[in-house]
Amino acid sequence: MTTTVPEKHEQAAPEPGDEHIPGAASDPFAQDTLPAPRDASRTLLFSLLRPHRARVALGAALLLTQQAAVQAVPLLVAYAIDSGVPAVRDDDHGPLVAVAVAYLVCALGAGLLQYTFIRVAARINQSILLELRGRIYRHAQALSLDFHDRYTSGRLISRSTSDVQSLRELLNEGLQEMLIILVSIVYIGGLLFYLDVGLGGAALLSFIPLYLLVRNYRRRSARRFSERSSAIAAVIVKFSETLNGIRPVKAFRRERANDAAFDRLNARHERVNGDTILEMARFVTISRLIASFATAGIVLWGAHRVTSGDMELGALAAGALYIRRLYDPLDRFAMILNNYQSAVASLDKISGLLSQRPDVPEPERPVELPPRADGRPGREVVFDRVRFAYRTGGEVLPTFDLTIPAGQTTALVGATGAGKSTLAKLLARFYDPTEGRVLLDGTDLRELSTAELRRGVVMVTQEAFLFSGTVAENIAIGKPDATPDEIERAAKAIGAHDFIASLPDGYETDVRKRGGRISAGQRQLVAFARVLLADPAVVLLDEATSSLDIPGEKAVQEAMETVLRGRTAVLIAHRLSTVEIADRVLVMESGRLVEDGPPAELIAGTGRFSDLHRAWRDSLA
Amino acid sequence: MSASADPPASPARKRSVVRSLLRLWPYVRPVRARVFGAAGVAVVAASMSLVMPLVLKWIVDGPVAEGDTAGVWLGGGVLLLVGVLEALLFGLRRWLVARPLAGVEAGMRAALYRHVQRLPVTFHDRWPTGQLLSRGTGDLQLLRMFLAFGLTFLIVNSATILIGFGVLVAQDWLLGLVLIVPVIPLIGMCWLFEVKFSVVARRAQDQMGDLTTVVEESILGIRVIKGFGRHRSQARAFRALSRELMDTEIHKARLLAAIWLVILALPELFLGVALVLGVGQVADGTLTAGTLVAFMTTAMALRWPVESIGFLLALCNEAATATDRFFEVMDGKVPPETAREKGPDDGDAPDGLVFENVVFRFPDAPPDSPPVLDGVDLHIRPGETLALVGGTGSGKTTLIGLVPRLHEVTSGRILLDGTDIATLPRREVRARVALAFEEPTLFSASVEENVLMGADDAGPGDLDRALRVGQADGFVAALPQGPLTEVGEQGLSLSGGQRQRLALARAVVGRPGFLVLDDPLSALDVHTEARVEAALREVLADTTALVIAHRPSTVQLADRVALLSGGRIAAVGTHAELLHSNDEYRHLMTGERTEVPAS
């Protein structure tokens, strides 16, 4: 029953019933990258932006105008001194008034345009994030269980949370800042060209070493950041592992050994953390040095040209001040670049997830199931020449035929990996068969809409997951429009009413709040009440492996019999006591049905089931 | 004692910001020279930035205008020197604090980790892992940021503002005053904005948390959702929460837009007034054009320091909150190793494990609630194995947790070979008592390390023996690297049954005198259970053991059984005796009900 999972990051939980092919190193699921078309993230970004084209254009226009207003201010100062002062001396207040008005317009304009821009940008950003969150959510819900089995829940959660978060940070803070920086550089560059072509050209040349530096920093910092994030991840894992296992930590006196192990991880993080900060320091120093040399060089060259009469003195005076401003945003630019890199990495992962296609497509022309024959709750199930293999090639179920008459309870027995869960998942249409058909009262499952299918077939795992919310809401998952009366009736029929009534707020008790603690056995009863309320024709039951005490087990077994009465049922049995309530036992081995018959008959025989049963009997002694 | 405070920190400030931040001093003290040195360097660098425009102006107005070539070269040289100095000082400031402050962050994290490990289990029961983890990561990173950046620039920018305005007023007191007028309201409005903004930002964070919960649940519960085809309330909650979050974010953006309007427009308007007045003065000849240019340039250079004050104050506020959150945990009291002094009646005799009138109530339970254990008397003789049976919630797990002192008894005594465990150092108690929990936890380490952590000095022979007892030798040998295979969170994940068998091996590896097992066979399949039992029986033959049992097969391991009911030991005897004489016991072991006991 051991499994081989060579990849450290991929944890294929080999719980009973989980029969997927473990992630080999070549499996894309084993690494955290899903195959996606090369330009998937760009396509994704454009598809998110497209509905907001008009707003994006408006935002861009606002930003361009706003930066024009901001950059105009030094020009106004220059104009006021150069033209305003002589005019005032000539008693002409016209230019000064013009400057005052222009200054007022620029000041208020810059503020108001910025105000509008932030609000427009927020609309765009938030709509994009809303859409993206929704897409990931819906997509994750639509993907098959096969996918969920392989793509761990932790990763899916981090796709929908931290990856969206890093995109959010870029959109909210980085992108707009980056645009402002770029626009201001373009404006200042333009102004320098306007003042003097040579001045502009020289400033432009100075961006060559700066560009090389930025490129070099990007490469180096990417490496530092990935070192740092894996170092902090190691610290976090150690920290949370200790906290989650605090009882064994204390019981086995691990405190000192843990201190030492933690110190090692912490010291590594300290080192790479320092490296990252120093990398930034290096960039800032070098970029400022380049800027200083460029400024001094350009001013000297300009001064030389002024003395030789090639350039106006005023142009140099204004140009010298603008050059300073040209290099000011370099530090911020480096920081935003880091944000941008992590956002791009996140977007890549998200688009990889979104480009996964659901394995079980909806039918184009769905059909309805015929009404149940003579009002009985069950339906007939037929596996018609069914074969199932993973797309990677491993055959799980060789071709087989199986008919389960309406109302029959069938137990599937066999070792882990024998194919029990796969058979059940084919019936629930979590997978489609590679060959052959699965029929429900003669209708191929692939022709049924999801809603119709789930009215017909319900799969329950007894290790029941409870959603936050009230007990009543958790039962009503089986039938969202159920009345409180129906819910209570289902709970009573299952035998769950007594314990629910004894909870602090009865059916309205929040299962995640204090006092709402529900034991494993009680969870199973809630899960059964769900099924009873859903009233499906076919029930697939994956039995729990966790142990209950004996009274709990009895209650669960009684509830199970209530649920199964009259329905067609397939039980994946882990305990042989469960098998006793079945009408029929199917023993599976390596994907084949090797024994088939009523339990009593198989026990009396000499096959595998008979051996298994004897061993179990002995253990009960 | 603040350890009993509820984990989610109340946003209300109990201390002033400054008093909270001062608590950081012991951690910062070792690197104080570097931190203040960096602040000094930053002040010099900032003045370089103020000087730079003046130098530029001087070159253009002076040597260039006069055609003085030597002067131009000199000016260029000065310009380069100032620029290079500025660049190097900026770098120096960062270099000075980079490693020391990474060290402060790491030191605080290590202190937190050490402390948290030693806080009592009751503390951990109240504090979710996430809360402690966020103190160890996000809060400490914020504090480093604050020390590296916030604190420095609060000093530097305040100094720059004071110096800058001194220069301005000295150059022209009227124009200087015009520019000072908006500074106070501007800083005030920035501060007010940060306060309002942090409230909304906090709301956004909470909503993000709720949204994350829904997302997590719909992923963790995907099998239920798929099984029933839908979960409308879940999808509805997702839609509603993501809408709410969007509204809050847009509210945030509105506040941000408003403050930007103020920041951009207000100082600029006063600069405009100063410009017009200045031009008037220049025209009158009371001011030189060069002075006006220098004045305007200095005023513009002061904009960022002024604007940043509000943000920096808010950062102080956040840092103070992070400090409080950190010390909330650090202030938790670590209980002393021994709970009381050795008394005269504490003998030392091989007397097994004795519970004497043990009462236990959770420290945070209301005082009028009934105790979980209400006078437990039990004697497990040396070498004896006693099974503990009881209904769900009867306190079995709590009772056995008292033996290695994971919890302290409220009253009464527990004696190990005649010595009250309260008089022994905790480490010693835990060295003598080995445990296996129902939920077996493996740490991220090799199988071998996981098992051997149960013993102080065990050899390879002990490992093999322990693995055999847990019937784990077979599957361990088949692992990719055998007993050296990494398991746990970071390694290979094993099935519940496999983990349980390794936990059992860990409990027996050190040949402990006392063994406490919580339903050690619950996750095993039928065949394995029988084999483990056989091997365990040999170990138990000469060990004093207390075993929680849920089913008859586990009870078979024990010499006697004790029934825990209503916080007391209701009956003690052999399995057969209790089956015959006790209705509750019969119900628990067979599911049959002859009369209805209080459940």
Briefly, what is this?
Chain A: It is a multi-pass membrane protein. Chain A: Residues 1-21, 359-376 have a biased composition (Basic and acidic residues). Chain A is 62% helix and 10% strand.
Molecular structure report:
Chain B: Residues 353-591 form the ABC transporter domain. The complex is a heterodimer of chains A (621) and B (599). Chain A is built from 20 helices and 10 strands. Chain A is α/β, with parallel strands linked by helices and 621 residues long. Chain A has 3 domains: 36-196, ABC transporter transmembrane region fold, CATH 1.20.1560.10; 198-311; 375-620, P-loop containing nucleotide triphosphate hydrolases (Rossmann fold), CATH 3.40.50. In chain A, helix 2 (53-89) packs antiparallel against helix 3 and helix 8 packs across helix 10 (330-354). Chain B is α/β, with parallel strands linked by helices. Helices cover 62% and strands 10% of the residues of chain B. Chain B contains 22 helices and 12 strands. The longest helix of chain B has 53 residues, at 232-284. Chain B is elongated. Chain B starts with 16 loop residues before the first helix and ends in a 9-residue tail after the last helix. Residues 1-12 of chain B have low confidence and may be disordered. Chains A and B meet through helix 2, helix 3, helix 5, helix 6 and helix 7 of A and helix 3, helix 4, helix 6, helix 8 and helix 9 of B.
